[in-house]
């Protein structure tokens, strides 16, 4: 089975969910085909920069969590 895309995305990455909702609306939560609308942003530097920021933030957050794990 696996995890539904909406559960994975919406619960584990709220910043990305917010950006996607801003760009293409919230329909992707119920219909993964709606994500195809993102193609129109493939060359949009502002969108790509925002995606990089979200990715970096998530990596930093994960690193901070890992540092808290006792050795």
UniProtKB/TrEMBL annotation:
Gene Ontology MF, one: pyridoxal phosphate binding
The protein's Enzyme Commission number: 2.4.1.1
Similarity annotation: Belongs to the glycogen phosphorylase family.
Pfam families, A to Z: Phosphorylase
Taxonomic source organism: human gut metagenome
GO CC annotations on file: cytoplasm
Entry-linked InterPro entries: Glyco_trans_35
GO biological process, one term: glycogen catabolic process
Keyword field: Glycosyltransferase, Transferase
Protein's name according to its UniProt entry: Glycosyl transferase, family 35
């Amino acid at each position: 089975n696996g995890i539904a895309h909406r559960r994975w995305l919406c619960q584990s990455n709220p910043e990305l969910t917010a950006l996607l909702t801003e760009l293409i609306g919230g329909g992707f939560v119920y219909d993964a085909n709606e994500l195809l609308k993102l193609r129109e942003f493939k060359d949009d530097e502002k969108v790509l920069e925002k995606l990089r920021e979200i990715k970096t933030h998530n990596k930093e957050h994960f690193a901070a969590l890992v540092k808290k794990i006792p050795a």
